[in-house]
Amino acid sequence: MEARLFQWRDIINSLISDILKTPLPVGVDQRRALGKKQRDETPISALGHRPVITRSAPHFIHTIESHLIAELLPMRHQRMLAGPAAFFRGTAELMAYDLRHEVNSGIEVLSSGDAHLQNFGFYASPERQLLFDLNDFDEAAVLPFEYDVKRLATSVYLLGAQMHFDADQMDTLVKQVVRIYRKSLKTSFKQTQLERFYTTSEVHALIGGIDAKAAGLIDKIVTKAKSRDQASVIKKYTQRTASGQLRFKVSPPRSIHVEADTEVSLMQGLLAYRETTRADVNLLLHQYHVTDMIRHSVGIGSFGTHCYLVLLMGPNGSSIVLQIKEALPDRHHLSLQTDSASLQSETQAGQRIIAATQILQKASDPFLGWMTIGKRSFYVRQFRDMKESVDVTKLNFEQFQAYSEICAQLLAKAHAQSPQAAVICGYLNKDFDAVIQSWCLDYLHQVVNDFAAFAGQFE
User: Fold this and answer.
1) pLDDT tens digit string along 208-263?
2) Which pTM value belongs to this model?
3) Do 306 and 447 share a domain, yes or no?
């Protein structure tokens, strides 16, 4: 256990070292001045230039899918073929490659790496408050800050197009989303670092200033989210056997019971996972025992990875369902790897994802932890504990606008946790809004062309 804890500290220290790798002045004003100097070296207008990039989207996707479970690929493809927005959501590797081949600001922060509109959602804090925040960090890394902004703004365009919103309205909205990111980041620095650290993403604190219609919609979602507790998970995902035992429902190939050797490996992994949790959570889990496991795939981008649900029962009949999710390298690095042997060194992705979650979210699931099984890395969290997302395809324009603006504000608050954020404040001016909006409008053509190339394989 002691060796494992030292390894965990090494991962955290390595991530923090990446965030802090550029020496910075102590004062916020001096950091802003550094940002203004950086703007002279890399003008904001340069962030709007898209070089000609020659690549094959199907080739990139095939490389990613060579690491996934083959029998699940048809279902994954079906989800990606729903439209350009779904395709964009499932292919973070393509945009990651493109962004790395163009001019960047040179100002890096700990980034989500995949900050599209559908990677924000509701979940419970340890105090059982309902929060709304970024909620997927599989692609988290130290990256130029504008990567997240470009991915968020592009997703606004894609989902708006899917809902056939007016093109002029969408141009204005995307520019507004970028503006709110910029303004929110600068507003954050009217607070002290400690005040920024304690900023809440509690739902009612977020919706106080938005349109009444949108607030009403969120209130309905809040009510639904609060009903999604462990009891509702048990009701939906399990059933009683003839002998009265509680077991998971199965629906092959998406949900299947695991083989005996996999079950043994997961049981051993769960013992290691407990050592990475908080002391109180570790003690709690000691009072539960595993009664069932299934492999259960979720999402789009991660559909086809090795993901499992574990049912644990306590002495008084209480239950917990944990999700064990495979932690792959971020998609950019994974897309450059051509065989499974190249994954041998990637045994720390789970730690990276958990660390990024705890830094970028205002509060996190207390059950977060990680494990390594053989050459595969995993992270663990509660399954569906007050988790809910907004179905943006059912929003009217005013609701969609309010939702997009809240996401931009939260992205800025997440970036504000990095020391380089003060440098960003000095770097940015109002030109940033139109430059990013124009870039994203142009990038839509790339997404549509990539989607067409992918879809063409199935005609």
Assistant:
1) 555 555 566 666 667 666 666 677 788 888 888 888 888 999 999 999 999 999 99
2) 0.90
3) no
Shared-domain flag, residues 250 and 203? no
Give the pair of three-digit tokens for residue 2. Answer: 């002691």
What residues make up the domain containing 278? Answer: 230-382
Spatial CA neighbour of 349 closest among 336, 364, 365, 330: 330
Same domain, 261 and 147: no
Cα(24)–Cα(42) distance, rounded to whole angstroms? 18
Give the closest residue to 322 by CA, choosing from 284, 374, 363. 284
* The last residue of a domain, from among 348, 382, 416: 382
Domain final residue, candidates 347, 382, 417: 382
Tell me which of 14-18, 247-251, 340-344 is least confident. Answer: 340-344
42 domain-assigned: yes
Distance, in Å, from the CA atom of 240 to the CA atom of 249, rounded to the nearest integer, reads 9
Structure tokens at 333: 């690095």
Residue 183 within a domain: yes
Tell me, what amino acid is at 320?
A: I
Task: Tell me the C-alpha distance between 447 and 452, whole Å.
Answer: 9
Quick one: 337 and 279 in the same domain?
yes
Q: How far apart are CA 106 and CA 442, in angstroms?
A: 22
Helix (H, G, I), strand (E, B) or coil at 145: coil
**How do residues 135-151 score in pLDDT, each as one tens digit?**
889 999 999 999 999 99
Angstrom distances, CA of residue 173 to CA of 71, 110, 114, 271, 415: 40, 26, 20, 48, 21
Length of the chain: 459
| Residues 199 and 286 both lie in one domain | no
**Assigned domain for 388 exists:** no
Kindly list the distances between the CA atom of residue 386 and the CA atoms of 25, 117, 124, 199, 231, in Å, as whole numbers in the listed order: 42, 19, 5, 21, 11
DSSP 8-state secondary structure symbol assigned to residue 305? S
The SS3 call for residue 336 is coil
**Residues 399-419 as b or e (16 or more Cβ within 10 Å = b):** bbbbbbbbbbbbbbbbbbbbe
Phi, psi of 432 (to 5 degrees): -55, -35
Scanning 309-396, the segments in alpha helix (DSSP H) are: 331-335, 349-360
Residue 325 lies in a domain: yes
Q: Are residues 174 and 125 in the same domain?
A: yes
Domain count of the chain? 2
Q: Which amino acid is at 50?
A: R
> In 3D, which of 419, 413, 416, 425 has the Cα closest to residue 202?
413
Domain identity same for 373 and 415: no
